[in-house]
């Protein structure tokens, strides 16, 4: 067993300052300087960063019972947003919750959401005009929020989506700011954050009350229907689970789409190939979920985007008992970090790893990769419950939007990712809408 942890610079804080300063650079440096396991040290805690697909599979899948969700999900800031919902709980509580939420994500259920995806995207596009410049991230966040509310809760939140999105953004931004320095300390919320949470709770309570008053049929609200089917269900739990799904069910999909448009704007060759596929399959009509098997390149764009910009850039666990991983001791309480960002950009697994090449998903070569060289949705029992929903959603939305518009960015725009709770582009990036077929004004 390897027992000597490399001595990190930075005194008692260990690797924490480097991780806080620029987490993505830090991860890249670890991948460069260490072998398959990077032993790290944080105040009062040791940690292992796993860079090998087989070690990652062991922690997330094979030995999952020895690893629970990490300490940062127990911090006050995260609890305030997600409560004790499906993302944050462990053990029997988690198992009961997962069983309760699963029916909304059964394989036969997912295609039924396609019409809603298409209808709400069509509603958004009816407001879009060529020549407009738009904050695409905020448009995508609004659209995916409307989609998750309509499909899971049976609510059309067109009127409230702006306010719900803003309140969530405020809480996330407060977490992001704290996370850099004090994320693990049990600090009370700032006044701004407390106000946003109060507002969010009131909006969510109103959606639940609307359902109870008979606003939607249970089959139109599979998640909320299931949560409320038990008359003794604790109302606070229902509210926290609804907040969990509103947050987890929109943010990552919105980011995947935003990154896809930013990448396509910088890769005219890929954009042209996407346009050709959409044109030849759809011939000018809007796609439906039934077209998806005929849109392999569109799906490849989504997969490649999730490889380069995985919205959840870090997936962590805490060891519940002493063990050894990759030859290093992983004592009880050690933080075990896996990073889709670091592994999916590793030259060990992907040729030309930093380049955007959707074609790599079409030649069959990826089938030879170890399973956990690519894991944007995590893995094992805690794999994203919305994985199939999200793949269909992002592919169908990308097809619907890209068939009508080309989104143009400015080549000197800084699009460096910002690693907060999720991997975001810099806020407020604007893109210009050009109609398909019109000459390209910015490359
Ligand atoms: C591109 C979009 C998405 C990405 C990349 C993504 C990624 C992930 C990842 C990596 C995890 C596992 C985290 C861990 O193991 O610690 C996760 C969990 C989860 N995701 Fe997603 N997700 C996406 C979309 C969605 C959607 C659309 C929903 C719901 C409608 C959703 C709901 C959840 C929930 C509730 C969990 C916790 C599951 C559990 O622990 O049992 N996600 N997601």
Describe the structure.
- It is a single chain.
- It is built from 16 helices and twelve strands.
- With 443 residues, it is of the alpha+beta class.
- It has two domains: 121 residues, Uridine Diphospho-n-acetylenolpyruvylglucosamine Reductase, domain 2; 304 residues, Cytochrome P450 (Cytochrome p450), CATH 1.10.630.
- Strands 1-2-8-5-3 form a five-stranded mixed beta sheet.
- α12 crosses α16.
- The chain is globular, with a radius of gyration of 22 Å.
- The structure holds protoporphyrin IX containing FE.
- Protoporphyrin IX containing FE (HEM) binds next to α11, α12 and α16.
List the helices and strands and how they pair.
Blueprint: H1 16-21, H2 23-33, E1 37-42, E2 45-50, H3 53-62, E3 67-68, H4 76-82, H5 91-101, H6 114-125, E4 133-135, H7 136-153, H8 161-181, H9 191-212, H10 222-228, H11 235-248, H12 251-266, H13 268-282, H14 296-308, E5 315-319, E6 323-325, E7 328-330, E8 335-338, H15 340-344, H16 387-404, E9 405-408, E10 418-419, E11 423-424, E12 430-435
Parallel strand pairs: 2-8
Antiparallel strand pairs: 1-2, 3-5, 4-12, 5-8, 6-7, 9-12, 10-11
Helix pairs in contact: 4-8, 6-7, 6-16, 7-11, 7-12, 8-9, 9-11, 12-14, 12-16, 14-16
The protein binds protoporphyrin IX containing FE.
Cofactor: heme
Binding site for heme: 384
GO molecular function: heme binding; iron ion binding; monooxygenase activity; oxidoreductase activity, acting on paired donors, with incorporation or reduction of molecular oxygen
């Amino acid at each position: 067993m390897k027992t000597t942890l490399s001595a990190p610079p930075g005194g008692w804080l260990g690797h924490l300052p480097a991780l806080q300063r620029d987490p993505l650079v830090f991860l890249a440096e670890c991948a460069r300087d260490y072998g398959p396991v990077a032993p790290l040290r944080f105040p009062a805690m040791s940690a292992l960063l796993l860079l090998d697909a087989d070690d990652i599979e062991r922690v997330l899948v094979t030995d999952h019972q020895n690893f629970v969700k990490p300490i940062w999900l127990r911090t006050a800031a995260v609890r305030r947003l997600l409560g004790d919902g499906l993302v944050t709980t462990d053990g029997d509580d988690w198992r009961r919750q997962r069983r309760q939420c699963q029916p909304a994500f059964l394989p036969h259920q997912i295609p039924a959401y396609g019409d809603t995806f298409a209808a709400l995207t069509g509603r958004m596009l009816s407001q879009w005009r060529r020549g407009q410049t738009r904050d695409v991230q905020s448009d995508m966040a609004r659209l995916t929020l409307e989609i998750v509310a309509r499909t899971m809760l049976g609510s059309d939140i067109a009127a409230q989506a702006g306010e719900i999105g803003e309140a969530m953004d405020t809480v996330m931004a407060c977490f992001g700011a704290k996370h850099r320095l004090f994320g693990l300390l049990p600090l009370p919320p700032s006044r701004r954050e407390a106000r946003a949470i109060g507002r969010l709770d009131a909006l969510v309570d109103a959606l639940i009350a609307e359902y109870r008053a008979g606003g939607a049929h249970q089959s139109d609200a599979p998640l909320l229907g299931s949560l409320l089917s038990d008359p003794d269900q604790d109302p606070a739990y229902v509210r926290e689970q609804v907040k969990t799904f509103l947050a987890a069910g929109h943010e990552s999909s919105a980011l995947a789409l935003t990154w896809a448009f930013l990448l396509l704007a910088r890769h005219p060759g890929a954009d042209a190939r996407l346009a050709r596929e959409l044109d030849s399959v759809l011939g000018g009509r809007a796609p439906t979920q039934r077209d998806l098997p005929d849109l392999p390149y569109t799906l490849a764009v989504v997969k490649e985007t999730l490889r380069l910009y995985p919205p959840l850039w870090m997936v962590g666990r805490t060891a519940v008992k002493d063990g050894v991983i990759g030859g290093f001791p992983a004592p009880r309480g050690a933080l075990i970090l896996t990073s889709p960002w670091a592994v999916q950009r590793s030259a060990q697994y992907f040729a030309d790893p930093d380049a955007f090449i959707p074609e790599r998903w079409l030649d069959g070569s990826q089938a030879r990769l170890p399973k956990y060289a690519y894991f944007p949705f995590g893995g094992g029992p805690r794999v994203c419950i919305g994985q199939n929903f999200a793949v269909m959603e992002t592919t169908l939305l990308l097809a619907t939007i890209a068939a009508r518009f080309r989104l143009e960015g400015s080549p000197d725009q800084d699009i460096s990712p910002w690693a907060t709770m999720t991997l975001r582009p810099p806020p407020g990036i604007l893109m210009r809408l050009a109609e398909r077929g019109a000459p390209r004004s910015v490359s």
